Amino acid sequence: MAELTRELIRRAPKVLLHDHLDGGLRPQTIVELAAEAGHQLPAGEPEALGRWFTESADSGSLERYLETFDHTVAVMQTADNLARVARECVEDLAADGVVYAEVRYAPEQHLEGGLTLEEVVAAVQRGFDEGQAATGGAIAVRQLLTAMRHRANSREVAELMVAHRDEGVVGFDIAGAEAGYPPTRHLDAFEYLQRENAHFTIHAGEAFGLPSIWEAIQWCGADRLGHGVRIVDDITVDAPPGSGEAAAPRLGRLAAYVRDKRIPLELCPHSNVQTGAAASIAEHPIGLLTDLRFRVTVNTDNRLMSGTSMTQEMAALVEAFGYDLDDLQWFTVNAMKSAFVHFDERLRIINEVIKPGYAALRG
Ligand SMILES: O=c1[nH]cnc2c1ncn2[C@H]1C[C@H](O)[C@@H](CO)O1
Ligand SMILES: [Zn+2]
């Protein structure tokens, strides 16, 4: 098998389910848009600004990590700016070898320039359409609408999602500080989505542990877990002291349920290291969860704040865990199976894009 160079990983078809639109701007674009909007940035040069984002996000705390978004959201308050950011997002993902992506953002954070929620969704879709056209169909990108978990308008955002489900919006999510804001706070929105046969994921098990994951699945009915990395808290790896047994991992009831039901985990390794959810890439629970055959997917979360890309995430996993092309294909097929587009579309991308793409790389 060919050596897994960075360039080979870049060329491999990749699927991205967890990426924030307001966490993936090009530093150069922020500098230009901030100058137009009169927004004061912490650094004036694109390179220094990029460094500021990664260093500030490297705090070990999700709350401090989230503060950096003030500077991206500030330049995403007009239709043209939103469309540009969305178009560039598609171009950057396509250049990175991503063939299908679901990109999320919170429409309510983009109303300060006078846009309505509807206009925000339309502007982002315009950018996605332009980006997909410019990249000649190399990538399909869909929207996920996020509600902020500390706010009380999730039902309204859920209704916005359902209203635009045939216009490029395929799902719903809640994000923001996790501790103190459990998923059940938004039960009304999730029950509404279930009655509407709509799909949703929930950021859970990132900065807070098993109770958050349990609520997301057993109370709210989440299709997928945003991060979900703390499911390892329900897995015991050590053999009982003095037992003399081999250390076979033992799954608690929640971990077993998540694995048995094939509930997708949207794992974001670099982001987790930055917010303190994992000590390092090498110690990231993705290794154990992959060994145990959970439905693991690999994601970027915030490409700007983590200075990352799908290629970078996968290259780091290859280095830390020795994964090969078969493993990368497994992550990719897992992600495509877990996408919120219809089954026939998922199957088409798996059979016509992903499998032939990996086969060509094996040469
Ligand atoms: O990893 C995350 N956890 C919780 N919230 C997050 C994460 N990454 C981004 N966000 C927040 C900040 C953004 O402004 C918002 C919508 O994309 O979602
Ligand atoms: Zn996220």
UniProtKB/TrEMBL annotation:
<feature type="binding site">
    <location>
        <position position="203"/>
    </location>
    <ligand>
        <name>Zn(2+)</name>
    </ligand>
</feature>
<keyword id="KW-0862">Zinc</keyword>
<dbReference type="InterPro" id="IPR006330">
    <property type="entry name" value="Ado/ade_deaminase"/>
</dbReference>
<keyword id="KW-0479">Metal-binding</keyword>
<protein>
    <recommendedName>
        <fullName>Adenosine deaminase</fullName>
        <ecNumber>3.5.4.4</ecNumber>
    </recommendedName>
</protein>
<dbReference type="GO" id="GO:0046103">
    <property type="term" value="P:inosine biosynthetic process"/>
</dbReference>
<dbReference type="InterPro" id="IPR001365">
    <property type="entry name" value="A_deaminase_dom"/>
</dbReference>
<dbReference type="GO" id="GO:0008270">
    <property type="term" value="F:zinc ion binding"/>
</dbReference>
<dbReference type="Pfam" id="PF00962">
    <property type="entry name" value="A_deaminase"/>
</dbReference>
<feature type="domain" description="Adenosine deaminase">
    <location>
        <begin position="13"/>
        <end position="355"/>
    </location>
</feature>
<dbReference type="GO" id="GO:0006154">
    <property type="term" value="P:adenosine catabolic process"/>
</dbReference>
<dbReference type="GO" id="GO:0046936">
    <property type="term" value="F:2'-deoxyadenosine deaminase activity"/>
</dbReference>
<dbReference type="GO" id="GO:0005829">
    <property type="term" value="C:cytosol"/>
</dbReference>
<dbReference type="InterPro" id="IPR028893">
    <property type="entry name" value="A_deaminase"/>
</dbReference>
<feature type="binding site">
    <location>
        <position position="22"/>
    </location>
    <ligand>
        <name>substrate</name>
    </ligand>
</feature>
<keyword id="KW-0378">Hydrolase</keyword>
<dbReference type="GO" id="GO:0009117">
    <property type="term" value="P:nucleotide metabolic process"/>
</dbReference>
<feature type="binding site">
    <location>
        <position position="176"/>
    </location>
    <ligand>
        <name>substrate</name>
    </ligand>
</feature>
<comment type="function">
    <text>Catalyzes the hydrolytic deamination of adenosine and 2-deoxyadenosine.</text>
</comment>
<dbReference type="GO" id="GO:0043103">
    <property type="term" value="P:hypoxanthine salvage"/>
</dbReference>
<feature type="binding site">
    <location>
        <position position="301"/>
    </location>
    <ligand>
        <name>Zn(2+)</name>
    </ligand>
</feature>
<dbReference type="GO" id="GO:0009168">
    <property type="term" value="P:purine ribonucleoside monophosphate biosynthetic process"/>
</dbReference>
<comment type="similarity">
    <text>Belongs to the metallo-dependent hydrolases superfamily. Adenosine and AMP deaminases family. Adenosine deaminase subfamily.</text>
</comment>
<keyword id="KW-0546">Nucleotide metabolism</keyword>
<dbReference type="GO" id="GO:0004000">
    <property type="term" value="F:adenosine deaminase activity"/>
</dbReference>
<feature type="active site" description="Proton donor">
    <location>
        <position position="206"/>
    </location>
</feature>
<dbReference type="InterPro" id="IPR032466">
    <property type="entry name" value="Metal_Hydrolase"/>
</dbReference>
<feature type="binding site">
    <location>
        <position position="20"/>
    </location>
    <ligand>
        <name>Zn(2+)</name>
    </ligand>
</feature>
<feature type="binding site">
    <location>
        <position position="20"/>
    </location>
    <ligand>
        <name>substrate</name>
    </ligand>
</feature>
<feature type="site" description="Important for catalytic activity">
    <location>
        <position position="227"/>
    </location>
</feature>
<feature type="binding site">
    <location>
        <position position="18"/>
    </location>
    <ligand>
        <name>Zn(2+)</name>
    </ligand>
</feature>
